[in-house]
Amino acid sequence: MFVIVYLLSCLTVVSAGSHSLMVFATYIDGQTPFPEFSIVVMLDDLQIAYYDSTSWKVVYHTHSDSKYYDEEQSDASIVFQYIYNHLKHWTLNLKDQLNHTGVHVTQRLVGCELLNDKPGLFKSWDAFDQQNMGEFTFDMEKNKIQNTLKWRITLDQAAQLHTKFMHQNVYHPICIKTLRRYLNIEKNNVMRKVKPRVRLMRKRLPDSYRLQISCLATGFHPRHINLTLFRDGQPVDDDQITEGEILSNGDGTYQMRKSLVISEEDREEHKYNCTMKHLNLDNKLDITFDADESDQGSFSLSVVFSVLVFMCVTVLIITALIIWRKRRTADRGSETSQSKYSPTPSSASR
Fold first, then answer.
1. Inter-axis angle of helices 172-185 and 69-98, to 10 degrees?
2. Measuring CA to CA, how many Å separate 272 from each of 200, 209, 260, 268, 296?
3. Where is the Ig-like domain (predicted)?
4. Count of domains in the chain?
5. Please, where are the H alpha helices in the chain?
6. Is 323 strand, coil or helix?
């Protein structure tokens, strides 16, 4: 229940030449086996640090330069304590307003981005008990704040100026500085480009006349990809598609699969194809399902059956040859024995 599902959905697709540093913060009010407060720091899709209320210290997952350690701990302490105080304060307020008891989870996704090496927006999304509570945006270039958060108390002019000052001179500069630093440290991992491999699969569903066609893209990096199934040139509706999540392969690359269940009539009447767009592909990759091909399941069964028949025939032929040779050898031995011990005409007359 504490997985940041909603906040992850807020992330937009990162285009070529853009990078982000995002902080995933979770505050838990109530008795649980988890820390009261925890943070995961992500550089694009790479986790670089972890922080929680057990030790109140940042644990780095990358090879951070030791000469920046004290500075990083100081910056993290300023930002993370600010997030902790805010989430705790708003959780208590909302719990009182809604008259709720039990365990409550407040989450925040906050961070900054570089767009072609230029500082972009500083953004923050909040959620309370899996409900969207709005968005906060600070535009450094325009020195402008846009606030759609439902739980923010209306600030007077002095408080608004203080908020703008802190984001302009503290939070946004710290975020951009950290983003640039770790982008340089982890550039080989973050900026590596691996082209996707694509496979088309078709199988017959058990106890059914329906078929499942799937398009699988795997082994690609970065994680952002556009994979689409088409029917007669039109995108298939999302409610007909199964799967579709980006998953990790465990080696730093990713995979995505999209599947569609169709009938035999659909396969004959419609044309299905899969298109894929990725940063490492010059053009989109378009692959068509051949309606005349046998489905994967039937093909596999026919191959297995043919192999079994071939093996049986081969065994029978070999067995017949062995028996024939044994009989032939036995017949030759019998003829030799008879010719050796049978009396000749001259010896019989004597």
1. 130
2. 11, 18, 10, 10, 16
3. 196-288
4. 2
5. 5-9, 69-98, 157-166, 172-185, 187-190, 264-269, 296-341, 345-349
6. helix
Q: Structural domain of residue 254, as residue ranges?
A: 197-295
Q: Which of 156, 190, 224 is the last residue of a domain?
A: 190
Q: State how far the Cα of 36 lies from the Cα of 191, in Å rounded to an integer.
A: 34
The size of the chain, in residues, is 350
Direct distance between the N- and C-terminal alpha carbons of the chain, in angstroms, rounded to an integer: 113
Weakly modelled stretches of the chain, pLDDT under 70: 1-17, 62-66, 150-156, 282-283, 289-310, 330-350
Q: Can you say how many angstroms the Cα of residue 271 is from the centroid of all Cα atoms in its chain?
A: 28
pTM over 0.70: no
32 and 178 in a single domain? The answer is: yes
Residues 52 and 75 in one domain: yes
The residue out of 155, 190, 225 marking a domain boundary is 190
At 131-190, the pLDDT tens digits run 888 888 999 888 888 888 765 555 567 877 888 888 889 889 999 999 998 888 888 888
The pLDDT tens digits for 287-305 are: 776 644 444 443 343 444 5
Is residue 46 within 8 Å of residue 189, measured between CB atoms? yes
In a domain? residue 43: yes
The position carrying tokens 């480009």 is 193
Q: Are residues 145 and 227 in the same domain?
A: no
